[in-house]
Write a structure and sequence with these properties.
This protein is mostly beta strands. The chain has helices spanning 32-35, 49-59, 70-79, 194-200, 222-225, 239-242; strands at residues 16-19, 25-29, 40-47, 87-91, 94-98, 102-109, 115-123, 133-139, 142-148, 152-159, 170-173, 176-179, 185-189, 205-211, 214-220, 232-233, 246-252, 263-271, 280-287, 304-312, 318-323.
């Protein structure tokens, strides 16, 4: 209903942001505040790493925008109910255009010391001004790239100010710990049940990376558990299960196709556990319509197969093909 989700409320924000200690904090939100010529109030609360993890748990393991209910916003507000904001600002958003067609409203918050912050943003004078949307802001110069397969976590940590690897980074995930080498790279064996827990997507898996007294949190798992990351299958296995086992990078010749066009595609595939090329794949092209169960094949419904190709891969796992 109206006012119950991030879609219909006046404001919605991304789940989390990260910026360095020498940069202002740019917070994007939906463009409605520009269209309505509305100012926003920003309340900035310093929080602990544990509070930041609690926030990420409330937001859940899924996407960044649109999806969370007002009751969950209230749960976030309760995390800081006994705290006073470090800053309260009234700001006028400006427009930011990306990719030539998308538009966000953005506000800029002056740079802050390293740490975790929860930002509450509400529209000044709006009927829903009492229901702020929230985002986690990580102010940290510890820039981290993290990836997982079913058994290992690998991180690469770099100082965002000097652009140099961090050889002293400490990586913590649940009860396990590791340290980065001189290249800033660290590897860690994951718990036996990690892949199953991530596939169930009941709670976010959060790694904590600390160096030079600063901490960055990284939510793990999304890179290889999105069921829509590829519709290629290996050996006829269900696509959602097989995405856990096979890494695929897929490219098509252009993003917009006419019905009369021949769609050319190419890519590379490897087994996630052995890191070796897979011998064969099946490529399927499907059609999904809005109004399905639910959202016509985006979540849980794979759509209707209209054509498929059996593909042979070379020794490096490369493949190519076409649909016409």
């Amino acid at each position: 209903g109206e006012g119950e989700t991030g879609v219909n409320d006046t404001l919605y924000l991304p789940k989390d942001l990260q910026t360095g200690t020498e940069q202002d904090i740019v917070v994007p939100m939906n463009s409605a505040v520009i269209e309505r010529k509305t100012s926003v109030q920003v309340r900035l609360y310093p929080v602990s790493v544990d509070q930041a993890k609690q926030y990420l748990a409330i937001r859940g393991p899924g996407g960044s925008w649109f999806y969370w209910a007002r009751a969950l916003r209230n749960n976030v507000a309760n995390l800081v109910k006994d705290q006073s904001p470090a800053a309260t600002l009234t700001l006028t958003p400006s427009a930011r255009y990306e990719y030539g067609y998308t538009r966000d409203a953005v506000v800029s918050i002056p740079k802050q010391p390293a740490g975790m912050y929860l930002a509450a943003v509400s529209a000044v004078g709006s009927a829903s001004a009492d229901t702020a949307d929230w985002t986690l802001i990580q102010v940290s110069d510890v820039a981290v790239y993290a990836t997982t397969d079913r058994k290992q976590l690998m991180t690469w940590s770099v100082d965002s100010r000097t652009k140099q690897p961090l050889s002293d980074a400490k990586i913590r995930f649940e009860s396990k710990e590791a340290a980065s080498n001189t290249d800033g790279v660290a590897t860690m064996t994951l718990p036996e049940d990690y892949a199953a827990r991530v596939a169930q997507a009941t709670a976010p898996s959060i790694a904590e990376i600390t160096a030079k007294g600063q901490t960055t949190l990284v939510v793990l798992g999304a890179s290889y558990t999105h069921p829509w990351s590829t519709s290629l299958e290996k050996g006829g296995a269900p696509v959602y299960e097989d995405n856990l086992n096979t890494w695929v990078a897929l490219s098509i010749d252009r993003s917009v196709q006419r019905r009369s066009d021949t769609l050319h595609f190419s890519g590379i595939a490897a087994d996630r556990l052995t890191k070796q090329a897979v011998p064969a794949l099946t490529a399927r092209i499907t059609v999904s319509l809005y109004g399905g169960a639910p959202w016509g094949g985006w979540w849980g419904a794979p759509g209707t197969v209209i054509d498929e190709r059996s593909l042979a891969l070379d020794g490096a796992g490369r493949f190519s093909g076409e649909f016409s």
